Amino acid sequence: MASKSVAKEASEIMLASEMIRLGARLQVLQAETSLSYDRLARLYREVKGCSPPKGMLPFSVDWFMTWLPNIHSSVFHSIYQFMDTRSPAKKSHALVEAYRLYLEQASTGRADEPFGEPVLSFTRAWMLIRFFDSNMVQLSYCERCKGGFVAHAHDPQKGFVCAICRPPPRAGKTRAHAAASTKAAGSAKALLDKEVVAGLTAGKTRRPAKSPTLPVMAEPSPA
Ligand SMILES: [Zn+2]
């Protein structure tokens, strides 16, 4: 009976730990390593400090077609393809590296909530690669920006326009976004009002010396 290589096991544990930190479900770890269920469950508890979630993995291909998930998964897939073909990282290592880069890109410009839930979870990213491998999805190329976007397999390529070039009317109108816009508008109004008041009390029409530049829209109100 061939004994299992300690070095191989060690590298699988490292890989599994990294995937757990990125949010992988137990089923993903079972598919990507040869470690036993019990060892993986123990590792999960050590890394996360809680039991692994139970239940089915998200199966739907349709999820990847709704506009925001579609943009995020297309970005992720393009990073993954690059990693898998042009870097030494292959397969599950390419997945980990690509997902880390995706998280970096997805949190850019979201300084106010850098640790918010990413649109594309690690498990969904893994599912997406599987969907590509089993030819359930394809890349369709946008007629306008020429970018490759995730689409249903066998969807007609002709006349395809992506969700960035033609966003749906409700795009960007989430509750969080609406709250942020209201806050920004409120701050801008407060700044404006103070300027008007300062101008009136000083009896001058020119801008007060204290604020030589235009008020920034998103600056938080000092009050
Ligand atoms: Zn486009």
Automatic annotation (TrEMBL):
Any one GO biological process: positive regulation of DNA-templated transcription
Cofactor(s) recorded in Swiss-Prot or TrEMBL: Zn(2+)
GO MF term (any one): zinc ion binding
Assigned keywords, A-Z: Activator, Bacterial flagellum biogenesis, Cell projection, Cilium, Cytoplasm, DNA-binding, Flagellum, Metal-binding, Transcription, Transcription regulation, Zinc
Binding locations of Zn(2+): 142, 145, 162, 165
Span list, region Disordered: 202-223
Pfam families (UniProt xref): FlhC
Superkingdom, taxonomy of origin: Bacteria
Location, primary (coarse class): cytoplasm
Cellular compartments annotated: Cytoplasm
Cofactor note: Binds 1 zinc ion per subunit.
Cellular component GO terms, alphabetical: cytoplasm
InterPro entries listed in its UniProt record: FlhC (IPR007944)
Family from the record: Belongs to the FlhC family.
Protein purpose: Functions in complex with FlhD as a master transcriptional regulator that regulates transcription of several flagellar and non-flagellar operons by binding to their promoter region. Activates expression of class 2 flagellar genes, including fliA, which is a flagellum-specific sigma factor that turns on the class 3 genes. Also regulates genes whose products function in a variety of physiological pathways.
HAMAP family per UniProt: FhlC (MF_01891)
Subunit structure: Heterohexamer composed of two FlhC and four FlhD subunits. Each FlhC binds a FlhD dimer, forming a heterotrimer, and a hexamer assembles by dimerization of two heterotrimers.
Record protein name field: Flagellar transcriptional regulator FlhC
Organism field: Pollutimonas subterranea
